Amino acid sequence: MSKTLFELLSLDGRTALVSGGAGYLGTEMCRVLAELGANVVIASRDAAKCAGAAERLTGEARGPGRVVGRRLDVLDPDSIRDCLTAVTDDFGGLDILINNAWSGAKNSWESIDDAAWSYDIEMSLTSVFRMVKLAFPTLRDRRGVILNIASMYGHVAPDYRLYDGKEFANPPSYGAAKAGVLQFTRYLSSFLSPYGIRVNSLSPGAFPHPATQAHTAFMERLAGKNPLNRIGRPHELKGAVALLCSDAGSYMTGQNVCVDGGWAAW
Q: The pTM is what?
């Protein structure tokens, strides 16, 4: 019997963990999951920020699920284990894992060094491996969903003409790591399929942080790179997250969905 779209989108009774969930884009990912009824674990290294975000989303009363904040350092396997144990204790397991955490310094080709390169690869790529590896048992038990947040710069190169020096530069390590995330997503979609686990990626761009948006000249150059002639707004990721994390996307795996204003279309 065919389900309605409302039924397919429902996440009632499911539990989602979002790394970097209290950040600029992560907050909207958590919000849409809560709106669809999921229990949501907002996780990052800043436990107080996560707790505050959880309190705000709870106050919105968007859905029947609970929203909690948890400390999570994706560079530390013990921290990941502790967070996953807490999720299991609170909710009985995990149905949805969104790998969104990121931090790093701005670097140009001229300024980047070995330490910055290694940190960015560890943060943006190795952490995704580590999260999936350690969450695999509970995701296997729940026939779960994994959504890896990649970037448009995982499949297209930054246009050097956009950038002037180091201030807004996109480091070479970032795109290299995100390209790795795209391939890792395809690998996982194959090798985790026998367990009923779906794995997809989402490539946003461009969604500059508010501090960057204050620089008008750079924003004009950035906006002019896509057919919609503007930057993205965080809530514009919600539709893709809802599709990829719910049964509305139940026949999708190994896919990369671009939310980039058409950046890569020309």
A: 0.97
